[in-house]
Structures are given as C-alpha cells and as structure tokens.
Design brief:
Elements (H helix, E strand, L loop, with lengths): L3 H10 L2 H23 L11 E3 L5 E4 L7 E2 L9 H11 L11 H14 L9 H9 L6 H17 L2 H11 L6 E2 L1 H9 L8 H9 L13 H17 L5 H9 L14 H9 L8 E3 L4 H18 L6 E8 L4 E6 L27 H10 L8 E4 L18 E4 H6 L3 H11 L1 H10 L3 H6 L16 H11 L4 E2 L16 E2 L3 H11 L21 E6 L5 E7 L3 E8 L11 H17 L18 E6 L15 E6 L11 E7 L5 E2 L9 E7 L3 H10 L26 E4 L5 E4 L7 E6 L7 E5 L2 E6 L5 E3 L4 E9 L4 E10 L1
Parallel strand pairs: 1-5, 3-4, 21-27
Antiparallel strand pairs: 1-2, 6-7, 6-14, 8-9, 10-11, 12-13, 13-14, 15-16, 17-18, 17-19, 20-22, 22-25, 23-24, 23-26, 26-27
Helix pairs in contact: 3-9, 5-6, 5-7, 9-10, 10-11, 13-21, 14-16, 14-20
Protein name: peptidoglycan glycosyltransferase
Enzyme class: transferase
GO biological process, one term: peptidoglycan biosynthetic process
Length: 789
C-alpha cells in the first residue's frame, strides 16, 4: 500500500505541463461544490394544503400561502399517458441529457442569430423547472444562469423527481398552477382519471395560458388539442383507436370550485398544522361513509327542527386503529342562522349522565361493588346537594347494573362520594378530558350528573377505551408514519371494562327510544345516553367491536328544548347510524376476559337480597360476576337476629335476656335512609319489636347506626329576618330498631320525637350545636350558624 508521502513524491515527479490540467479540473470541481453549497437551489414550494381521504381523494383544498391553487401531484397520479404526452411535447430527450440539451441549444442559437431575434429557447424540462422556481427576465444572462442551475438541479434530484416538480409548477392561467390543480378545477377529477383528450388539453395550455383559456375559449383549445392529437398519432405515440376516441371527445371544461367537503374537520387540521411539506394532510376518512353520515344527520335535523332543535354533531371512530373515519361538526356548516360553523365535536358542553360508565367501572376496580351489589336509590342529602332522577322518582334498593343501565342519579353520586372526587378527576384526566383538568379545583359531586365540561371527542375517546379493554388513547385524526397506535393508558381493568359493556348492552332500560321498542332494527351495541341540565344537550354514545359512534344533538345557542333528551332525541340518530354503517357486524361481540392466563373475572354465588356472599340465613341464591382479589367478599347481613318474647312484642339484648320464654327471630337489617324512604312512601316493612323497656343497659355507637341528621346540614349558615323569623326543620334517619329520638340544642334537651317526625326550631342569630340521640344511646352532633339579614 502506498502512503501519503509516496503519493506526494510521485506527484512531484510529474512534469508541470501535465499537472496543470488536473489542477484545473480539481479546482473547478472544488469551486463548483463550493458554489453549490453557497447557492443551493431551493425547491421548497408553498403547496396548497389538501385534506386527503383514506383512498387518496381530495376532501378539502385551501389556497397556498401565496394565494395559488397549487395542489401537489403524487408520483402515483402521474400516469404513463400523461408522462408520454408531456415528454413528447416538451423534451423528448429528457431521460438522456444532464439537464441541458447541447444540440438543441446550438440549433436555437443559430436560429436566433440568423433571424436577428429570439425565436427558440431550447429549454429542457429541467431548465423550465429552474425558470418556474426562480423567475427572471428573458435575457441571455438569465439563460446562462438557467443552464448552470439546471445542471445543479440534475445533480441533486432524479429524473422522476424533476418531472414531478415540473408538473406541479405548470402555469394554467389565473392563480392555477400544477397538473393536479388544473385537473381538479377544470375537469373535477384527479390526474390519474384523465382521458387522453383531457391529458392533451392540459399539456398544451401551459405554453399559452393567456390565449388558450379553458372554460372561456374551449373551441380554440379543442382545435389545438386535436392538432396535437394528430401529431401523437402520426408519431405512433398512442394507438390509432385511442387517438380516434380522443378526437371525437367533446371539450366541456369549465372552472369549478375547489373541493370543500368536511369544512369543520379540514379547518381544524389546517389550524393544527398537521400537513406534510407537500401540503397533504392524510386522514382515514372514508368518503362514502362520511357522505352517508352527513346525509343521515341532515335528514334527521330536518325532521326534528319542528321541535326547535337545529343542530347535531357526530364522530365515528374505528375501535381497532382509533382512527376517525367520519366527522360531522354540525348539520350544515353554511347555516349561519343556526351557528353551523361551530364545531360540535370540539364544543365544550355539559355531559349529563354520560360519565357514569367510567364511575361504575372505577367502582368495580375499587372493589366497592359488583354488578348485582345493592345500592339504595332513595332521597339523600349530600351536604345540601339533593339530586333527583330524570323521572323525579326513586326506586329504593336496586342492583348496581340496574342503577347504571337506568342512569339513576343518587346511586351514582353515592359512588362518587365513596370513590372520591379527586380520584375520579384523575381518571378523567388520564382519559384525556382536558377541560376537566382546568376545572379540577371547582368540581364536586355534581360533576357525575353533568356539572363539568366535556367535548364529544373526549367522550368518544373514553368509550373507545371501553371497547378496548379499558385502555384509552387519543384519537388519530391524521395518518402518521408511526403506524399502529400504542397500547394506550389503562383507565380501567379489562374486567371492569367488560362489566361496563355487559351492563350497557341491556335493552330493558328507560333510555331506549320509544319507537324502537320490540324493533328488529335495534342494533346490537353498548350505549349510554345523557341529557344536560335545562335540556340543552342530548348525548348518545355507543360502540360495538368495530366502531364507536358519538352523537350530540341540541342548539349551539344553548337554548333548552322541552322535547330534548338523550333517549328520544340523540339515540334514534345513533341507532340509525349503526344500522347504516355496521348492521349485523361481522366482528362478533365482546367476550369476557376469562381465557387469558391472568384473567381475574369469575362467577360466584351471591344473595340476591344484598348482592353479597351468602351466609347460612340466605335461602335464595343468584350468580354474579366478580373480580378475584378485588371485589369485596363480606358475608350478607341483610337480616339480623333478635331475641323476642313468644308473642313478638318485646325484644331483648344480651344484658336483659330472660333465661327462658324467648324466641329467636330474624328481621330485615335496613339502613336508616331506606327506612325513611319506606315511611315517606308508606311502603310496609317488617321492623323488630321495641327493646325491653325494663332494661337499664345503655348502648354505645359500636353498631354504627347512629341517627343521621338530614336537616339542617352540618356547617351551614342560615340567614333570618329578625322581624319575620322563620323556622328551621330538624329531621333525621334512624336505624330499624329505633322507636324514639331525642333532639338537643346546645346540649339541652329540646324534645322527644318519633324517628320520622319533623321538628322545628326558631333560633336567634348565633352558633348552635344540634344533637340527635336515639333510644339505644347512639347520637350524632352537627353545628350551624344563624345570622341576621
């Protein structure tokens, strides 16, 4: 091997006259590289932003930054017919020269010298690209610069890339540039669908865009087109049959409007700058599905407009890929009167009851409930907050799955209280609810009934999580090079997600639309409805294995409508969408996650009276799902044993139990709130007999059933008018074995009363301690403040 020193020695022995040509060549190359580095040719062109569907078709196009219609034509859109026609007309030797054609240059120079004026420029396609990228005055100096730039362009780009760039920059008059722009705006189709006659038409226009004006001078354009078609035929470029068909084809080109579909979706993506350098924004939108959804929404709103309901929004997501496949922001974007330009998919609205599935799922995962656990749907005061059901009725003890399927409010608020608002808010933040994150400090128990702000997109994202074993991930609005989505955030366990889905699939529920009762058009989906306070928003979110569809119906003005409800307003549209898009889905249905090795969902026997594990006194049995190692396993206590006399008039405690003459009996072990509900509704229930009056034993609070003061509220402030003082009601809920309660005001006995009797006081301004004790010695204390107005 030669070292550097040996090469230097050899070079020193070369005669000077032989070194000079090599030095000149090396110097020239170095200078060319330096100039290329110092003055790079810039091919970045501001293309028109284009929203493309899943099949590549143009959904919406925008003007470029320089106010041009300059749509980027991809390689696949440049057909062989287009390529052959443009090369034959503009540069036959395009693939054989290095950017300049020396023979053509010499021929053009000779013609220009002989005629004394410029008659031919001999520009290759590469040189024309340079001229389009860097417009200059038509002088010999400009031509020289074009020659150098053409060589530079050929150095950095392939022939295919240069031809593509040329076709994307061709001028067609006015503000239209590029073959795709001309194809879409004059013929209403992409370049790959152009006929030979249309290709030839667009091939000849760039040389004479002022005189050959499509849509204005079509007859003149047709004559020039046919002249070139005959030349193509004479040269054998295309078959004689193809030429004959092209010659007979009429020219009906006219200036069309650019595609303007899906304006909400397109403007959103443009504002979020989701485009590629070519201006293309690739989406998973399916055009046929999108047009079908838009048609269904428009027809539905036309039907309900008589009820003063003017708008709707719909979002359809593929559950497997999390891609948005259809997006409707409003019933009519161009309806200014009804706020059509508001994007209902992103508008922050009250969710009504649509968040309850997440709450129940979290309760399943926390082990608080199983589907058949009993919850009391009775009037309850939560520190001054007294929720009611949609129908203003209460149902007493119900199962958890009944409470969710029927969207009962009091059980939901109780679960949120038990889980904790911060825990629920954290789960919502994890699921991507950005508005809730901003409101987190101000949210309370009312959030589960709609006292927070969400968007349709956020709700659909959450429900796609239910369809994907509890894993939530942001929806994919655009196609990205990353490919398939990641696993996502685990908001619920697969077991809890299945239990939610299994519950939401039930059809014996009040939010089934009236006209769908016993209908064979009912799709097999899991769904949840919601109606906001004041009937301003109607929601219905549903999913099956294939799709999740979210529907919002209402008025963007916020005007409430008496007829508006999630069940009868939004759900019919949801069912119609599923029947149109995925009727009899081939994907099957969700299966319980029991086949995996780490599966924790199983079945067990329970007592139907309480939903708990049965004990020896439970005569009936039922089967319920539970999550192993998570769900509670306490024994059923729906009955309690009492010792009574033979007649059942008196009960005894262990302290006063007689040595004989007693009988052991069982009575329902009802909680105070349920007893109060039965009393108010006059529902008979079996109560144990009163305790032995001769017993002097006092009981403590270990039983955990001390009276619950329901009025007034602990820590409340009451304002009274000294001239017209008003009374404050005292009320409590006592245990099943209580026959009398004692009210105390600042530790002084106020009066004795029945457990369900209302007691009234007329306090003066000041601080007060209120106490309620039952006849078992159990008591509860609260404090209130009374002030003068």
């Amino acid at each position: 091997m030669f070292s550097v020193q040996k090469w230097v020695a050899i070079w020193a022995k070369v005669p000077v006259w032989r070194r000079r040509p090599v030095q000149l060549i090396v110097t020239g190359l170095l200078m060319a590289l330096l100039l290329d580095w110092a003055f790079p040719i810039r091919t970045a062109v501001p293309y028109s932003p284009v929203v493309a569907a899943a099949d590549g078709s143009v959904l919406h196009a925008f003007l470029s930054r320089d106010d041009k219609w300059r749509l980027y034509a991809q390689t696949a859109e440049i057909t062989p017919v287009l390529r052959e026609a443009i090369l034959f007309k503009e540069d036959k030797y395009f693939y054989y020269h290095p950017g300049i054609n020396p023979l053509a240059l010499m021929r053009a120079l000779g013609r220009n010298v002989l005629r004394g004026r410029r008659t031919s420029g001999a520009s290759t396609i590469t040189m024309q690209v340079v001229r389009l990228l860097e417009p200059r005055e038509r002088t010999y100096l400009s031509k020289l610069i074009e020659l150098v730039r053409a060589l530079q362009l050929e150095l950095h780009y392939s022939k295919a890339e240069i031809l593509q760039l040329y076709l994307n920059l061709l001028p067609y008059g006015s503000n239209i540039e590029g073959i795709k722009s001309a194809s879409m705006l004059y013929f209403g189709k992409p370049p790959q669908l152009l006929s030979l006659a249309e290709v030839t038409t667009l091939t000849i226009i760039p040389n004479r865009p002022s005189s050959l004006r499509l849509g204005v001078r079509n007859e003149q354009v047709r004559q020039e087109r046919n002249r070139w078609l005959r030349r193509f035929g004479a040269q054998g470029l295309f078959s004689s049959a193809a030429i004959a068909d092209a010659l007979s084809e009429p020219l009906t080109a006219q200036r069309r409007a650019a595609p303007q579909q899906m304006p909400h979706f397109a403007r959103r993506l443009l504002s979020e700058k989701r485009m590629e350098p070519t201006g293309i924004i690739r989406t998973a939108i399916r055009p046929a599905m999108q047009s079908g959804v838009e048609r269904l929404v428009q027809n539905y709103i036309n039907r309900v407009r008589a009820y003063n309901i003017h708008n709707a929004a719909v979002l359809v997501v593929d559950n497997q890929t999390r891609k948005v496949v259809a997006y409707v922001g409003s019933a009519d974007f161009y309806n200014v009167f009804d706020g059509g330009q508001v994007d209902g998919v992103r508008a922050v609205r009250s969710p009504g009851s649509t968040l309850k599935p997440l709450l129940f799922g979290l309760a399943f995962d926390a082990g608080l409930i199983t589907p058949k656990s009993k919850l009391n749907d009775v009037p309850t005061n939560f520190g001054g907050y007294e929720p009611e059901n949609y129908d203003r009725r209460f149902n007493g003890p119900v199962t958890a799955e009944f409470a969710l399927a029927n969207s009962l409010n009091v059980p939901a608020v109780k679960l949120l209280r038990d889980i904790g608002t911060p825990t629920f808010v954290k789960a919502m933040q994890k699921a991507g609810f950005s508005t809730v994150s901003k409101q987190a400090r101000d949210l309370g128990l009312s959030m589960i009934l709609g006292g927070c702000g969400v968007t349709l997109e956020e709700l659909v994202t959450l429900f796609t999580g239910f369809a994907n074993e509890g894993r939530v991930q942001a929806l994919r609005l655009v196609e990205t090079p990353e490919g398939e989505p990641r696993a996502g955030q685990a908001v619920l366990s697969p077991e809890a997600a299945y239990l939610v889905t299994n519950t939401l699939t039930q059809i014996t529920r009040p939010d089934l639309p009236n006209n769908f009762d016993n209908s064979y058009h009912l799709p097999r989906i899991a769904w949840k409805t919601g109606t906001s306070y004041g009937r301003r928003d109607a929601w219905s979110i549903g999913y099956n294995r294939r799709y999740t569809i979210g529907v919002w119906v209402g008025n963007f003005s916020g005007v409430g409508v008496p007829e508006l409800s999630g069940a009868n307003t939004a759900t019919p549209l949801l069912f119609g969408l599923f029947n149109a898009l995925d009727y009899n889905s081939p994907k099957g249905w969700f299966r319980p996650p029991t086949a995996r090795s780490d599966a924790r969902l199983a079945l067990r026997q329970i007592c139907p009276e309480s939903g708990a594990v049965p004990n020896d006194s439970c005569t009936a049995r039922a089967v319920d799902y539970y999550i192993m190692g998570v769900s509670g396993s306490t024994r059923c206590t729906h009955q309690k044993v009492f010792f009574t006399d033979s007649a059942g008039w008196v009960s005894y405690c262990a302290h006063c139990l007689p040595p004989r003459g007693t009988i052991q009996r069982t009575y329902p072990n009802l909680v105070p709130e349920l007893i109060a509900y039965y009393v108010v509704k006059r529902i008979p229930y079996e109560a144990p007999p009163p305790h032995n009056p001769a017993c002097e034993r006092l009981f403590d609070n270990e039983g955990g059933n001390a009276p619950l003061i329901t009025s007034p509220n602990h820590g409340s402030e009451y304002f009274i008018d000294p001239k017209h003082p008003t009374s404050i009601q005292l009320a409590c809920q006592a245990a099943n074995d209580v026959r009398a309660v004692y009210w105390y005001l600042n530790d002084k006995l106020l009066r004795k009363a029945d457990p369900t009797e209302a007691v009234f006081i007329n306090p003066r301004p000041g601080l007060y301690k209120l106490s309620c004790a039952d006849d078992r010695g159990r008591h509860t204390d609260i404090r209130i403040t009374v002030k003068s107005e």
